[in-house]
Every structure is written in C-alpha cells, then in structure tokens.
Design brief:
This protein is an alpha/beta fold and 197 residues long. It contains 5 helices and 7 strands. A 7-stranded mixed sheet has the order 1-3-4-2-5-6-7, with helices on both faces. Helix 3 links the parallel strand 5 and strand 6. The N and C termini lie close together (9 Å). Bound molecules: guanosine-5'-triphosphate and magnesium ion. The site of magnesium ion (MG) has 5 residues, from helix 1.
Amino acid sequence: IFRNKLEFFAAAKVSSSFPPPNLPEIAFAGRSNVGKSSLLNSLTRQWGVVRVSDKPGLTQTINFFKLGSKLCLVDLPGYGFAYAKEEVKEAWEDLVKEYVSTRVGLRRVCLLIDTKWGMKPRDHELIELMERSQTKYQICLTKTDVVFPIDVARRAMQIEESLKENKSLVQPVMMVSSKTGAGIRSLRTVLSKIARF
Ligand code: GTP
Ligand code: MG
C-alpha cells in the first residue's frame, strides 16, 4: 500500500474546505515538532511531498494526501507551538479538534509523542475527544533514535499504563524513528490494514 504514489490534493484552514471523504483516512496528530511530517515521508519513502522543518509550526493547514486510490493520509498542524500568536494557535487547535471529531471516513489517528518528552495535557485532551467521538487512535512514540532503548521501553510502558482505564479505542503503542527507519515497517503493516483494497 505504501508503495503507491503519494499526491498532495488539498489544504484546509477551515472545515468547509475539507475535501469530500472518498477514501479511508489516517491522520497524524501531535504537538508541534514531534515529527508528523517526517513520519509521513518515511512511511511512504517519498521525500519532498510533505514538508519538514526545524522550525516548529511549519504545518499550518490540514494537508490531505492521496496514496494511490487506496488511502488518504492527513498531516495535521501541531498544537502547543509556543511562539505562534495566541489567536493563530487557537484557530489551529479548534480546526484539529473539529476535524478529529467530525470527519467522516477517519479510520485512525496516529497520535505522535516525542519519546524524550512523553505525553502532555494537550495530548490527553485530544485522547478524550477521540474517545468521545468514537475515533480509533494509536500512540506512536517518535525520535526513538535520540534516547536509549531502555528509555524507549520505559516510556512505552508508562504510556500504556496511563491509558489503561476507560479507553476503549486505543490501539497498541508503536515506536518509530523517521531518521533510522526503526519501527517504520511495523507501522506500515498496521496501517495498511485500513486501506481500501
Ligand atoms: P509541525 O509541522 O511544526 O507540527 O512539526 P512536525 O510534527 O510535522 O515535525 P517535522 O516532521 O517537521 O520534524 C520536526 C523536526 O524533527 C525536524 O528537524 C526533523 O528533522 C526532526 N525529526 C523528525 N523525526 C525525527 C526522528 O525520527 N529522529 C530525529 N532525530 N529527528 C527527527
Ligand atoms: Mg509538520
């Protein structure tokens, strides 16, 4: 599935410009700079279609990408970006929340968490929202290459522990590095099951 050509097809700043939901959709959410855009690139091995940057807050619109005619991958703007203007931050967050809670065809949200930093209040907020809106989600620990393997394992256990209660839609935690490619194949396998055949 992930060998299909990745093609950008829509960017939205408001929900009225979301494209029609014609394909099963997987969205990538998480704090600013956790590596959402990079993960899309390494999953598809198509560098350059999704933009990545050192500066947090690069992705400012909801970007929709088609993977052949099988799957729609969605790059969400990051939340919690400290330097953006207050109004701009709120607008992005509201847009992400609206997308997650209303989007027809949304089959999975990959919630990216930086392995080094762990989960923050905003991540928990998004989880509550997904539980309320019946959206399946999974935690992807990112940038595993910058911490020791033992700390990756510890972080995964800590997160699993914190999501044990009252969580019915959570899927197993995955661990990835877009830099080294670790865990990318396993994530592809999991996500491929969502595609249209
Ligand atoms: P926003 O669009 O601002 O929300 O950020 P994002 O979540 O899309 O992050 P992006 O993919 O743009 O990556 C942010 C920074 O983290 C870039 O400098 C990447 O090179 C770096 N990065 C991403 N993934 C990894 C990884 O697996 N390992 C390491 N070491 N760095 C990474
Ligand atoms: Mg981005």
